[in-house]
Amino acid sequence: MRLSLRLAGSMLAISLLTVPALAQTTGTAETGEANAPDQKPAFENQTRAALPDAIPQISVDIVAEDLPHLWAMEFLPDGRMLVTAKDGAMHVILQENGEASPPVEGVPAVVTAGQGGLLDVALAPDFETSNRIYFSFSEPRDGGNGTSVATARLTEEEGKFALQDVTVIYRQMPTYDGDKHFGSRLVFGPKGELYVTVGERSDPETRVGAQDLGSGFGKVFRIDAEGKALADNPFVKTDGALPEIWSYGHRNLQAATLDGEGRLWTVEHGPKGGDELNRPEAGRNYGWPKVTYGIDYSGAPIGEGITALEGTEQPVYYWDPVIGPSGMAYYAGDAIPEWKGSFLIGGLVSKGLVVLHMDGDRVAREERVPLDARVRDVKVAPDGTVFVVTEEQGGPSTILRLVKAK
């Protein structure tokens, strides 16, 4: 690794020209011991895929640092970045100098205990004319809390930002008095549909809700811009089922994106081992907690300890040990040609960027970009450079720009 210091416009940027720690092109990106070594993949390359033949050198620039503990980032059309902070604040950040605006006014109250807070943010498909954004948050409620989705207009006047006409359009139910596994990511589909990923709230008494079509725990929802179920959702006509459900049997989904065909992909946190890449399809059951790779944090098996069950879907890919997935982007740019057609996934535990090279709908290769920081969110800029939001455990955040080294 070579460390250099240079001026980038008016921004003082530290550039880390990284010869990847996995510079060899044989072996696998993951070399750690599995938590469940007796569990075997269901098909080739379902885990521990080989390294790619060509691994680019990546230069890393600090765009902004000493920020609040961030959870998500979204590019505004003019290149500025709208970010959410776990403690309940939004800010707009300039790329040129890394300066953050004063907190955006009008953000509703959030639960900040544990994994709660102000979570994801997404621009409406018509943002350039409507200025409308959507955001998810752990909402305080009578008797507990839950993941909710709100929409508002983002306004700016004399350098100050505010949310106007804030409306909660969807609430994960039931309410629960806990502080874990809120999810969540927001992804607009190609027809304006909004996918909302939520967790199953972690505890043994709630995790079973992931299998219950009448429960909002452990699901991917598919709603319209007003929060209503779409007429072609798979359970609209099923008695007792929530019509907003797209897929179920999920644990804690903190990564989601569309691929080049406009299809939804997700990565969810597994237990001790068992992080999963999936392509959620309408009405499909992804198994949790009946079936999973990995084991419980206590070392005991999850349920019957099985990794396959009729009527449930196998993950496209899984990790044991975990990467701690958060944030995800599909790379269609040209700035880093070796990554074209890959998924870029943030690693909270692996402390870097995980790059999955695809062959159709299967993983062909996996590489890692070590960043020595917990990666919370990943976005691809219009010019094809990659931005990641990092965090210290319970501490401040940094925004990094990744480019191919020259």
Explain what you see:
- This protein is mostly beta strands and 406 residues long.
- The protein is built from 2 helices and 25 strands.
- The strands form 6 sheets. A 6-stranded antiparallel beta sheet has the order 1-2-3-25-24-23, with no helix packed on it.
- A hairpin with a 5-residue loop joins strand 15 and strand 16.
Ordered list of secondary-structure elements with their pairings:
Layout: E1 2-8, E2 11-18, E3 58-67, E4 70-75, E5 81-85, E6 90-93, E7 118-123, H1 127-130, E8 132-141, E9 144-157, E10 160-171, E11 186-188, E12 194-197, H2 204-207, E13 219-223, E14 245-248, E15 252-258, E16 264-269, E17 275-278, E18 317-319, E19 325-331, E20 342-347, E21 352-359, E22 362-370, E23 374-380, E24 386-391, E25 397-404
Antiparallel strand pairs: 1-2, 2-3, 3-25, 4-5, 5-6, 7-8, 8-9, 9-10, 11-12, 12-13, 13-14, 15-16, 16-17, 17-18, 19-20, 20-21, 21-22, 23-24, 24-25
Radius of gyration: 20 Å
Number of domains: 1
* Poorly predicted segments: 1-23
What composes the largest sheet? 6 strands, antiparallel
Mean pLDDT across every amino acid position: 93
| CATH fold-level name | Neuraminidase
Shape: globular
Strand order of the largest sheet: 1-2-3-25-24-23
* CATH top level label: Mainly Beta
- CATH architecture field: 6 Propeller
Strand content: 35-45%
Order of SSEs, N→C?
EEEEEEEHEEEEEHEEEEEEEEEEEEE
Helical content band: under 10%
The CATH superfamily turns out to be TolB, C-terminal domain
User: What's the tally of helices?
Assistant: 2
How many beta-strand segments?
A: 25
What is the CA-CA span between the terminal residues? 14 Å
Structural class: mainly beta
